[in-house]
Design goal:
alpha/beta, Rossmann fold, 7-stranded parallel sheet
Length: 285
Amino acid sequence: MKLLEGKRAVVTGSTKGIGRGIAIELARHGAAVVVNHRPAAEQESAAKEARETLDRIREVGCPQAILCEADVTTEEGVRRLGDAAVEALGGVDMWVNNVGIHVVTPALGQSLAEWERLFRINTGSTFLGCRTAAEIMKARAGGTIINIASKMGLVAAAENACYCSAKAAVVMMTKSFAAEWASFGIRVNCIAPGVTLTDPTYAVVAGRPALEAALHYRTPLGRFAEPAEIGKVAVFLASDLASFVTGAIIACDGGWTAHGDFAGIPAQKVEEWAREFPRLSRPQR
């Protein structure tokens, strides 16, 4: 059963990682998909990743898939993406704001310029995408917008004040727009993924088995998410199965935000972590 037969979708930042997983799952359920990435001139691997994504989308039987290069942190770029979708597909029924960047940044020493840059990528792109999608959908009597936040928009993490704040803003933006645009038949929801198997995750845990084990044990389901699992939640939110769901924040995080301790971790794992993450020495008094 294809839940999105005849629907048209835009997924920002969709040539790799979570965005690719979402685009493929929407296509698997019958949606025509506009795949987006930043201009190839700014990202050396972008063209190759885009081709791979389009190939995988077509393999699942997508009725139509197109590529639009656009920097969605700019008004011009988002406008270009919206126009391309309307021209190619005749409209937009689903718009997924996925673009984001995670940079571990200690607050002490972080410049205002860097704070504003990260906010523009993580929050500004979502605002611009929501606004553009709503303008298109309002004229066509409805649609659904899905924002991608993070578990770190629901719970804090040290050296991540900027990222956590930006993703928390995405959460509140979702609720505000859901209330504002409900009368237009537009539903706005949010997915907050946990640790997901993307290139940045592989880079962080590579050669660090104790860290990988720590993240697994911190997650009640005991593993990382696959991008396709985030995509399946997007399919539900975009479909008629969620016809009375708006302003919702779904934590697809394996239970991370449902609890706050490390109970049940084997003693040998604690010993491994103690070696890799030595406790900070206390200052002398």
